[in-house]
Design the sequence.
């Protein structure tokens, strides 16, 4: 499904379905610490029902499944959901997935203990979505917003790779990340109160092939470039990594979370 948003990439169209195969292979990269930050807060654990917005290939529910929560994942892209279902089935995981925009999800009131949104919160129509999420949550339920990004001004490999993305997608708004709290729109505070936020550094391991795949699976590359642009980017990025990256390496990222409670 093609998406256009004037506040993202200067309105350039992107479609996560075009990169679902790479997304499934190369974006399941969150270190254990990322998940431990969630579990240690008593979220997404046994006895809880959790709705994961923008689930993509189901990375969050699949990796947290072992902690016993009952998961439902939703994403706007049917291709992403097909990959999520395939991977969950391969892992013998009972996770319910649906291909639907977040603003159109429909559940009875008080269906969930926790709602999660990882790497996706800025895509939503918050004025429409926030009252619906509050309705879906049980009294005192939590909204957990999660994010992880490489730090291009501090990590040379990330920085050089990002420069190449910008060569092909100069209006890509995912560039230039620095550490900061997750942005929570004003519309959320009518229905939720902020309990806490945390930002922390992470070292994420890669090989040349997995880092190349990770970059290809980003919005500014695989989800938006033409076939010819993607072919040229692919050759240039592989050549770049041969020049600057060892066989295995870590890339400096930061992780962030925000925990909000239903009023």
Sequence:
């Amino acid at each position: 499904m093609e998406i256009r948003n004037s506040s993202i990439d200067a309105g350039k169209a992107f479609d996560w379905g075009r990169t679902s195969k790479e997304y499934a292979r190369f974006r399941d990269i969150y270190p254990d610490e990322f998940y431990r930050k969630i579990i240690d807060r008593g979220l997404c654990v046994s006895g809880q029902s959790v709705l994961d917005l923008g689930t993509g290939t189901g990375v969050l529910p699949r990796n947290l499944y072992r902690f016993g929560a009952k998961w439902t994942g939703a994403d706007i892209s049917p291709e992403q959901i097909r990959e999520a279902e395939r991977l969950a089935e391969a892992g013998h995981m009972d996770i319910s997935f649906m291909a639907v925009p977040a603003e159109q999800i429909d559940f009875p009131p008080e269906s969930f203990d926790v709602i999660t949104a990882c790497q996706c919160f800025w895509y939503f129509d918050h004025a429409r979505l926030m009252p619906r999420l509050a309705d879906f949550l049980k009294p005192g339920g939590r909204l957990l917003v999660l994010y992880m990004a490489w730090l291009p001004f501090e990590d040379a490999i990330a920085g050089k790779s990002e420069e190449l993305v910008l060569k092909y997608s100069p209006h890509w708004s995912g560039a230039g990340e620095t550490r900061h709290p997750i942005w929570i729109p004003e519309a959320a505070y009518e229905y939720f109160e902020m309990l806490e936020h945390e930002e922390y550094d992470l070292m994420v391991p890669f090989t040349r092939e997995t880092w190349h795949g990770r970059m290809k699976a980003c919005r500014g590359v695989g989800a938006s470039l033409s076939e010819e642009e993607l072919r040229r980017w692919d050759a240039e990025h592989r050549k770049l990594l041969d020049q600057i990256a060892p066989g295995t390496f870590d890339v400096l990222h930061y992780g962030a979370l925000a925990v909000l409670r239903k009023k």
Remarks:
- The CA atoms of residues 110 and 138 lie 4 Å apart.
- The two ends are 34 Å apart (CA to CA).
- DSSP finds eight helices and seven strands in the chain.
- The mean pLDDT is 96.
